[in-house]
């Protein structure tokens, strides 16, 4: 079971204890319960926002809206309920940016690699499900040779961003992606697990979907680095990150544990 499937099921159970009827042997019942959960999430969508945002209590983060849209793509794929397809298209389009990679001008100045990946997951998920493509753009055509493969093209653009950013920084710590990609941002001197795991996931899912070895090699390289840097410790304990500031060269890992 994929993590996203588990999430939906858990959400259904969590709410069923309060107010939902759910018969897990009855597909109609499952779909009805899932529809209630999905509309509960969708209620937070700010339809006045031109940045595809869900309103959330402060402090809110742009990446959470990316996660929300990915959940609605999952919902659409599991149920075939097309209620949200048009809004998913609009919101994701509003966040693509001029390079079609989820680096929109509206978020510049604070968007980091770990924020970007939460939107990239929506493109990877849409790609894998064969979700309806975005309107044709030459940029999609030029990247993957077929303008109907918008989701794959977007994921490839983000993958290429991460490769470029990794290579710019490979002189410290033997590689690794930094938390921030903007050199002026606080956190530029930190290589962290969530960013590298997002890059790993992007490479691994593209590898599986396309069979292209460039992605396989990068997934292996990111995994190897995550282990040799100590961010993934023995027994698969995953730690927060490591600094390359002031010559630290990732010599000491922040052991705040995430998994
Ligand atoms: C399945 O669930 C739907 C919706 O709750 C209900 O109308 C229907 O009677 C159920 N079918 C069976 C066989 O229980
Ligand atoms: C919804 O978005 C609009 C446009 O950006 C903004 O003015 C408004 O404050 C947002 N609503 C809430 C509840 O945040
Ligand atoms: C969704 O549609 C596909 C293709 O028609 C079908 O194979 C699948 O069973 C449907 N899923 C649900 C949950 O209705
Ligand atoms: C996409 O590529 C095809 C084949 O090369 C071409 O005919 C078509 O005009 C292109 N579309 C766009 C929007 O670039
Ligand atoms: C582009 O991809 C779509 C969907 O996979 C396919 O139906 C179509 O034949 C492809 N077009 C070309 C020119 O390869
Ligand atoms: C920094 O660390 C990497 C790998 O851990 C090592 O290969 C490299 O020599 C180190 N650089 C310095 C200047 O110590
Ligand atoms: C494999 O992926 C890389 C990176 O996106 C790309 O440059 C290359 O053209 C791809 N190769 C094929 C055969 O599609
Ligand atoms: C990853 O590490 C394995 C085991 O040390 C090694 O065989 C492999 O060549 C490495 N691959 C890459 C892409 O770094």
What does this 3D model show about the protein?
The protein is mainly α. It has two domains: 1-75, no CATH class; 96-254, Glycosyltransferase (Alpha/alpha barrel), CATH 1.50.10.20. Helix content is 52%, strand content 5%. The chain contains nine helices and three strands. It has helices at 3-16, 27-42, 62-79, 85-94, 113-129, 138-144, 150-168, 193-210, 213-228; strands at 190-192, 239-243, 253-257. The protein has a three-stranded antiparallel sheet. Helix 5 packs antiparallel against helix 7 (150-168) and helix 6 crosses helix 7. It is globular and about 55 Å long. It starts with a helix and ends with a strand. Residues 1-13 have low confidence and may be disordered. Bound molecules: 2-acetamido-2-deoxy-beta-D-glucopyranose (8 copies). The site of one 2-acetamido-2-deoxy-beta-D-glucopyranose has 4 residues, from loops. Belongs to the glycosyl hydrolase 76 family. It catalyses: Random hydrolysis of (1->6)-alpha-D-mannosidic linkages in unbranched (1->6)-mannans.
């Amino acid at each position: 079971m994929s993590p996203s499937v588990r999430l939906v099921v858990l959400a259904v159970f969590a709410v069923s204890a309060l107010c939902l009827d759910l018969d897990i042997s009855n597909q109609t019942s499952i779909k009805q319960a899932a529809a209630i959960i999905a509309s509960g999430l969708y209620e937070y969508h700010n339809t006045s926002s031109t940045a595809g945002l869900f309103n959330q209590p402060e402090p809110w983060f742009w990446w959470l809206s990316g996660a929300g849209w990915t959940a609605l793509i999952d919902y659409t794929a599991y149920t075939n309920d097309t209620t949200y397809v048009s809004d998913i298209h609009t919101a994701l389009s509003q966040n693509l940016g001029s390079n079609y990679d989820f680096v929109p001008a509206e978020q510049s100045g604070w968007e980091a690699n770990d924020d970007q990946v939460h939107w990239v997951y929506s493109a990877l998920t849409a790609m894998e499900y064969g979700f309806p493509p975005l309107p044709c753009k030459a940029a999609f055509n030029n990247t993957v040779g077929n303008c109907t493969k918008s989701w794959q093209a977007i994921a490839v653009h983000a993958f290429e961003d991460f490769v470029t950013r990794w290579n710019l920084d490979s002189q410290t710590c033997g590689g690794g992606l930094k938390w921030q990609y903007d050199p002026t941002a606080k956190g530029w001197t930190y290589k962290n697990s969530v960013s590298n795991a997002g890059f790993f996931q992007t490479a691994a899912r593209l590898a599986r979907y396309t069979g292209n070895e460039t992605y396989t090699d990068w997934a292996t390289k990111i995994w190897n680095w995550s282990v040799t840097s100590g961010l993934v410790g023995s027994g698969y304990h995953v730690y927060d990150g490591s600094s390359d500031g002031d010559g630290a060269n990732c010599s000491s890992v922040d052991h705040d544990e995430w998994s």
